[in-house]
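Quick one:
INPUT:
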């Protein structure tokens, strides 16, 4: 099987965190100093209990529920606008990812929940990292050299057991072109399918002939 990258492979392990009693001025300073859009709030055990975002900070700064200054009737939103600590300002409960999640699963959760990042927790519920949209995108933005190496080493060599040089691999801007021979014609769609499963591959063009007649 191909190694499919997981959240644990791409997440950031060193996370800027807040405590429920972190005062507002420190929150704003931490977000600005670390150039981040949000930070998880953790309890005494290190488990995430909420998230404070830049939008939350803007609500506080404007003194209104909406960062753009529009009126609102949501009492919780007004409470955030008057908050003095991370515990009062944070959005809670927090939805967390797991390190063994696949990249597509994490991407779906980010999209479904309309957030830019998710805290990642271990089996004990404690924070182990954070994964963002950019982390997931980096999975698919790989160099042609990396892609070629995985196709040659994993797909053609380790999985299919083809001798080196049997199939020539060319990769340009993520598009893979295969030229050469495979033992049987029925292997051609298998090779193509496996190559399409390599992270970063955008297309596969196969010019492969069968060494033996089926």
């Amino acid at each position: 099987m191909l190694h499919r990258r997981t959240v644990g492979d791409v997440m950031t392990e060193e996370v800027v965190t807040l405590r429920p009693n972190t005062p507002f001025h420190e929150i704003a300073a931490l977000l600005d100093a670390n150039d981040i859009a949000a930070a998880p709030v953790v309890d005494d055990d290190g488990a995430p209990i909420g998230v404070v975002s830049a939008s939350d900070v803007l609500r506080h700064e404007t003194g209104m529920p909406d960062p753009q200054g529009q009126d609102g009737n949501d009492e919780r939103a007004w409470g955030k606008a008057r908050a003095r600590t991370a515990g009062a300002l944070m959005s809670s409960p927090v939805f967390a990812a797991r390190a063994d999640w696949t990249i597509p699963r994490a991407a779906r959760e980010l999209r479904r929940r309309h957030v830019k990042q998710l805290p990642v927790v271990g089996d004990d519920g404690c924070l182990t990292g954070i994964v963002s949209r950019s982390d997931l995108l980096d999975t698919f933005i790989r160099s042609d050299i990396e892609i070629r190496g995985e196709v040659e080493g994993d797909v053609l060599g380790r999985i299919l057991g083809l001798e080196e040089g049997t199939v020539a691999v060319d990769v340009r801007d993520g598009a893979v072109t295969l030229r050469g021979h495979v033992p049987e014609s029925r292997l051609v769609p298998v090779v193509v399918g496996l190559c399409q499963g390599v992270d970063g591959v955008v297309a596969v063009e196969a010019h492969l002939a069968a060494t033996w007649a089926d």
